[in-house]
Amino acid sequence: MKSLLLVFFCLAMLPLNAQRQGGHHRTPVLTEISNKEIVQSVYADATKVEKLNDYWYSIVDDSGKVYGYAMTSTDYCSQISGYNGPTPVMIITDNRYVIQKVALMSHCETPGYINRMEIGGFFGSWNGKTLQQASRLQVDAVSGATLTAVSVIKNVEYLVRAGQKKLPTINLKSNH
Q1: What angle do CA 156, 90, 60 make, to 5 degrees?
Q2: Backbone dihedral region for residue 97 (phi beyond 0: left; psi -120 to 50: alpha; all else: beta)
């Protein structure tokens, strides 16, 4: 009886042991990303975002000074999946719609692969590009994280196309 219990216990522990050792039987875990942190990583003095139209938000401080603009794919690209589900992105631009940052928002992708993409400069591929330039950009997927990279690329492509069609009027009182 004791040996049967020991066998049962060992079998029950296998999935836990595989997770600890980097096995392939990992349960997806939500990685929550703060939208505020993404925005403030580009514009440290920004205090809020204000919705301008279906796609665009202005990034402002308490005095109303506009630093740039942001778009997110959360409401539009939920059917685009990476390895473990949707991969919504935020695109932050300056006042002339030059991309300053592309960031993955809350997701369930494997943290190690996302880290590899960040270190390899994948998310920075669009930085410094106008929306028009970004719409023509061919970004390569990341080996080992192909599904995630392709889904991020599709999210960015969607936002760039849709965002160009609904550009808000540039505020001449902005700081750039």
Answers
A1: 135
A2: left
Residue pair 66/52 in contact (Cβ under 8 Å)? The answer is: no
- CA 48 to chain CA mean position, Å: 19
3-class secondary structure, 91: strand
- How many angstroms separate the first and last alpha carbons of the chain? 76
pLDDT score of 144: 80
Task: Give bridge partners of residue 71 from the DSSP assignment.
Answer: 91
Is 162 exposed, middle or buried (CB count within 10 Å of its CB: 0-12, 13-18, 19+)? middle
| Residue 168 · residue 56 · CB < 8 Å | yes
Secondary structure E strands in the chain = 48-51, 57-60, 66-72, 89-93, 99-104
Model pLDDT, residue 12:
45
Sheet holding 48-51, edge to edge: 48-51, 57-60, 66-72, 89-93, 99-104
135: three-class secondary structure by DSSP? helix
CA distance 71 to 69: 7
Is the pLDDT higher at 144 or at 58? 58
Closest CA to 57 of 87, 78, 41, 36: 36
